[in-house]
Amino acid sequence: MKGKKKTQINNQYEADEIQVLEGLEAVRKRPGMYIGSTGVKGLHHLVYEIVDNAIDESLAGFCDKIVVKILKGDVVFVSDNGRGIPVGVHPKLKIPALTVVFTVLHAGGKFGGGGYEVSGGLHGVGASVVNALSLWLEVEVCRDGKVYHQRFERGAVATDLKIISSSDQNSGTQISFKADPEIFVDSESYNKTTLENRLREQAFLNAGVNIDFIDEREDNPKKINFFYEGGISSFVEYIQKKRALGVVHPKVISFSSVSSDGFSKLDVALQYNDSYNELILSFANNIHTTDGGTHEEGFKRALTRAMNDYARRHNVLKDNDKNFSGEDAREGLVVVISVKLRDAQFEGQTKARLGNTFIKSLVESTVFEEISSFLEENPTVAKAILEKALASARAREAAKKARDLVRRKTVLETASLPGKLADCQLRDPDYTEVYIVEGESAGGSAKGGRDRKFQAILPIRGKLLNVEKARLDKIYKADSVIPLITAIGCGVGDNFDLQKLRYGKIIIMADADVDGSHIRTLLLTFFFRFMKPLVENNHIYIAQPPLYRITKSKKHHYAFSDHQRDTIIKELGGNVEIQRYKGLGEMDPEQLWETTMDPQTRVMSRVSLSDVELADEVFSILMGDKVEPRRKFIEENARYVQNLDV
């Protein structure tokens, strides 16, 4: 390619070409290996690592007060009243233990040395990784009436550990750091709502711990306190209330269990609501295991078995009836599963999935016993839950029949694609993309302007079915949805198979008005509820067509917001012609290609899923039956739309 100098590869691969990265160099060289990414998610992960260390002190029984502040300039401050990081000289390394904690990977009190029975900081890299990826980090430790201080810069020791004052406080640790802009080049600043959600979650999971959060970047910063004596039962109640969902039974079902050796503990809280969706939040040592793991598997298996056993014993399921599936048993369920265990085995430093096999048997035996007993002792609640499961089972059977009928008509066969679909020539999803366009006019422009080699166009007519209010059987009867399922090729729900994906990029292209926003939301709801792996694997995009075309001296300029329009007009010196696009149909094929479809010039937003709980909440509010929560949400968030600039 022109303009790019090709790197010369030495054919002789010699010993002197082997790099040895010392200290924290490896972290700065490959930060994604330790915090997942150097984007906004990784930036927040730095805060989580330090807060998790304070939470570990709480788990050990030595901390009940944590303060988190975001100072001006995006400086993070975290303090706790725990034991304080040890300051004595490490017997092996001959430097202060505090210095070891912040400069040596895999060094900490969480490897069986007696400092912690249970911790989320499995790898012992949290503090040192945060230090390595910070422009600077300062730590103050209070122990035995003395305050110790040390400063680090980009992971290296800047000042030696020294006593700076005496203190009346018995013990504690406070850490301040500034993320290194050289590492987090493309990330935004800290998001207050994201941090609030994380800290609230930790307060729920650790009943009795008091967490204060203050965002001092605001003009009038207010302290937010998180403290929940009810623990995860309060968590479930909070989730149901936020989503404004009606509950099937008024009281949260909760129970706990401890392993025979006393080193593992299980807490479960659950409640059914009147929606068709399930929400499982699982945690291991306070770490949100977003990809589940053995504790989730044990819960699902035990819940389904307990409900089927009860239904058989009480003749709810007849001899000829099929057992409830796991999806039937969990329809409308909100559950929080929290396990605390020694030597937790996570997949990767970001700890997305729990791997310990022994915890599965503890969860499975406890959940089966507790749910079975609850159903026997509460027949009225049992009846309501089982009626919901029965309705789900009937809908599932109806969906299967509808799907089979559709297949017999060849609509879902890959050889028979939707008639409206203008397919592309390539077949490799690594190189293909499909634009979902509302309306015949916009579809015509898109078909005329596209690159046929790799771009497909699927026009849809009218509003998509609101799947938030529909079970799967309704999906297979919806004329607006079937072409979408067919074109993408992966199926939906339990039949979804990402390996069958026909297009690597699925791009929603709708008008930049209220109707267009509604269509985008309906499509995103469908993808989140029935094709979630597409979102999780970053296959969904939103096109950003311009709002204005500004012409001067026969040269065209495009603006994506009012602010950008005004800036362009000012730069051009005024006396311009302005066209406000009311819809995509007003753009001819060449304009649509130039502004919205050309990979070299287009602007797109990629849809990612960083917080499943928050996404579930937003879709429940926006697309559910209750009007008041939706109105409140729109009023609270309208300012973000008004300030939107590309």
Topology:
Layout: H1 25-29, H2 32-35, H3 40-59, E1 65-71, E2 75-80, H4 97-103, H5 126-132, E3 134-143, E4 146-153, E5 156-157, E6 162-166, E7 171-179, H6 192-205, E8 210-215, E9 224-226, H7 232-242, E10 253-258, E11 265-272, E12 279-284, E13 287-288, H8 294-313, H9 326-330, E14 333-340, H10 358-377, H11 379-408, E15 433-438, H12 440-449, E16 455-460, H13 472-475, H14 482-488, E17 505-509, H15 514-530, H16 532-536, E18 540-543, E19 548-552, E20 555-559, H17 562-572, E21 577-580, H18 589-597, E22 604-606, H19 612-623, H20 627-642
Parallel strand pairs: 1-8, 12-14, 15-16, 15-17, 17-18
Antiparallel strand pairs: 1-2, 2-7, 3-4, 3-7, 4-5, 4-6, 8-9, 10-11, 11-14, 12-13, 18-22, 19-20, 19-21
Radius of gyration from the CA trace? 28 Å
CATH class of the largest domain: Alpha Beta
Approximately how much beta-strand content do the residues carry?
15-25%
Structural class of the helices, strands and pairings? alpha+beta
Arithmetic mean pLDDT: 87
Unreliably modeled segments = 1-7, 11-21, 110-115, 410-415, 642-646
> In the residues, how many domains can be counted?
4
Distance between the termini: 29 Å
CATH H level of the largest domain: which superfamily? Histidine kinase-like ATPase, C-terminal domain
Helix content: 25-40%
- Which of globular, elongated, flat, extended, rod-shaped describes the shape? globular
Q: Describe the largest sheet.
A: 9 strands, mixed
- Counting DSSP E segments of at least 2 residues, the number of strands comes to 22
User: Which CATH-level-2 architecture of the largest domain?
Assistant: 2-Layer Sandwich
The count of helical stretches stands at 20
What name is given to the CATH topology of the largest domain? Heat Shock Protein 90
